[in-house]
UniProtKB/TrEMBL annotation:
Protein name: DUF2244 domain-containing protein
Pfam families to which the protein is assigned, alphabetical: DUF2244
Domain of life: Bacteria
Transmembrane regions: 27-45, 51-70
Record bears the keyword Transmembrane helix: yes
């Protein structure tokens, strides 16, 4: 799963979430090499002909476009969410694409974890509400992962509330 509960803190817990990436760096190199080979293959038929010079810009623009599109997608999915649950506060920090950072903090006794079966941007949308603000968490996860996350978050919040009450 693209999230993990990290080592328990002395007075709480930490959750680290990230989007799933199906294309690794090694996979990107392989994909681009195969694409280059397949685009170059038809050029062999016109090698030594003036037609090659007419086709060459289109080949190069195609390769550059594929390179740019995949790299841009990888940069746009550089999202990391860190949730820290403690007896005195719940904090969520979202590190988004291009260095964008968003922070949220609330008292754990007033935080509600909600699962929106419909009506959200994705099915089974998970949000946390507290301090007059509602924030999403794990929207990039799969539907099953969001359902599991909702249960785990609710359970972890219950533990934090109980431990801080004593």
């Amino acid at each position: 799963m693209p999230y993990e509960w990290q080592k328990e803190l002395s007075d709480g817990a930490r959750l680290h979430l990230w989007p799933h990436r199906s294309l690794t760096q090694r996979g990107f190199v392989g994909f681009f090499a195969i694409t280059f080979g397949l685009i170059t293959l038809p050029a062999l038929a016109v090698l030594g002909s003036p037609v090659l010079w007419g086709l060459l810009p289109f080949f190069l623009v195609t390769l550059a476009g594929i390179w740019y599109a995949i790299r841009r997608n990888q940069r746009d999915t550089e999202i990391i969410e860190d949730l820290v649950l403690r007896g005195d506060a719940v904090t969520l920090t979202r590190h988004g694409p291009r260095g964008r950072r968003q922070d949220w903090r609330a008292n754990p006794h007033w935080v509600r974890v909600m699962l929106h079966r419909s009506g959200g941007p994705v099915p089974n949308y998970v949000t946390m509400k507290g301090e007059g603000r509602e924030v999403e968490i794990g929207a990039f996860l799969s539907e099953d992962e969001r359902i599991a996350l909702h249960g785990e978050l609710a359970e972890a919040l219950t533990r934090i509330r109980q431990s801080s009450a004593h």
